[in-house]
Amino acid sequence: MANFLLIFGWIVVPVISIILTWYYSQEIPKGLPDDQLTGLLVSSFGLDTLRFLAYTATFIGMGKSALENLNGELQRLSSVLPKDEESEKYLEIQDGKIANIPVRIYKPKIHGNKMTTGVVYFHGGGFTIGSVDQFHPFTSRLAKEANVVLVAVEYRLAPKHTFPAQFHDAYAVVKTLLATGGKYGIDTNRIIVAGDSAGGNLAAAVALKLRDEDKHLAAEILIYPTLQFMDFSLPSFQNHDTRLLSLRQAAEYWSYYMTGTPNMVASFLANNHSRHLRNTKYSSYIGIDDKGKRSLPKKPSDGIPVAVLDGLVDYRASPLMAESLKGLPKTLIITCEFDVLKDDGLLYRARLLDAGVKVTHLNYMSYHAFLLVQALPYFETEELNQALRDIVDYVKGV
Predict the structure, then answer these.
(1) Is 283 one of the annotated active-site residues of the chain?
(2) Which of 197, 236, 255, 283 is catalytic?
(3) Of 133, 196, 231, 339, catalytic
(4) pLDDT digits (tens, 9 = 90+) for 162-194
(5) CATH number of 65's domain
(6) Is residue 7, in this structure, part of any structural domain at all?
(7) Would 181 be classed as within a structural domain?
(8) What integer best gives the mean pLDDT of the chain?
(9) Does residue 23 carry a pLDDT above 70?
(10) Could you write out the DSSP letters of every residue in 30-48?
(11) Do residues 119 and 101 lie in contact, with contact meaning Cβ atoms separated by under 8 Å?
């Protein structure tokens, strides 16, 4: 214990102090409403501190991988947060399994045996962190206010499980609910897939797969989704770094998702991994198109793993790279003004509209992960409340 306190006193405390000083010296996104500042600073500082401690623990041989250590700390933190007693009195909440995948099912008590809309929700976290517990403050409130059965999916995480494990888990749950949703009080004609960030990616990918199988979804809700890793030089990547998701962090998450390691980060940031796709149909999907120069894909750069090359053009990993978006269900896309992923959402919106899909797009003056952060006690804002009202209205209109 004495050695631990010595390490803590001489290493951890000074580092945390340096991080804290740096945080408060950084420029706040211009235009961010004042009531959102506390949530952004506290949550991002807390996340970076936990990340530092997780990596330190891994370095000295404690615990598992750094990301698993980090997620463990986030899980412990979520367990001590105050409960939303109002929502939990209204809901029957049960943990279980669907298609052998862990889930949490939120069901309004007043429904009884009445069939209602079902929302299958995939949490965010860069495919590497996050859990149904960590997102409980948001999902419980959404289930209550929308008056729906909500199924939150505990899909597997990288680096232990790389692509396509996450997709397989998400797809298995939705496909099973389409066949057996009635036993959970879900009208199988009114199933919505939804998710934020990495979860938005999974929702979009599942919708594409089910479309190809001629299976019906009522709608998809994509909340600041990550939809491609072909191009990390899009304007929002370059101009909207925030403390909760930076350009480099986005590249790290994708590297872990595709390979289980951070080894591809430098290549991703330089776009070396996708040079062979320039001037192909795939570059047109990200708004870069010179039909006069369009060609077939060239030979990839040396050293790019097959998993990366395949994932670049596989819609299960990169929904924006799907050859056609025709036949998808109506879609709600939510983007944030201060978010490196904003352009992913805008590009998907444009392609959906071109494909004849009915799209509702809402952009909020907020930052990446604001629905999670501001659903936490003490950080609630009007932007959160408005976004929740908008999502609830959309769900009720399905």
Answers:
(1) no
(2) 197
(3) 339
(4) 999 999 999 999 999 999 999 999 999 999 999
(5) 3.40.50.1820
(6) no
(7) yes
(8) 91
(9) no
(10) TT--GGGHHHHHHHHHHHH
(11) no
